[in-house]
Amino acid sequence: MSLKIKEEKFKVIQFIRELIIYIDKSLENFPKKDIELKNRLRNNSYDLLELAYLANTTKNIDKKIGKLEEIISKIKVIDFLINLCYEKEIINGKRYLKFGSKMDDILKYTLGWLKTINNNGHS
Fold it and tell me: How distant, in Å, are the alpha carbons of 10, 17, 35, 93, 112 from that of 5?
């Protein structure tokens, strides 16, 4: 296994952990009427972590690629939920940008991980 793949796997998991911590910290004072939105954000972020661990541990390359594609899809769902929080003025512009930055990092390293796998002829 190349060093590049190991670094990308580690970074993806690290960035997801940071996102989960930031979600918990940022959404402490969430309005009760929007509690379902908060729960979906939290649940999707934990799903993201689970997918990253599954992608990291599976030996089957096709399954690994499938999990990485699921991570990409899940990031887009979380992005939608964060955007909804911003539109409802639950989070401010500064937090919105910080969320975007964290999700961009996850997406960038997930795409790099996927590209590295595909470039190694494992598709």
Answer: 9, 18, 38, 34, 8
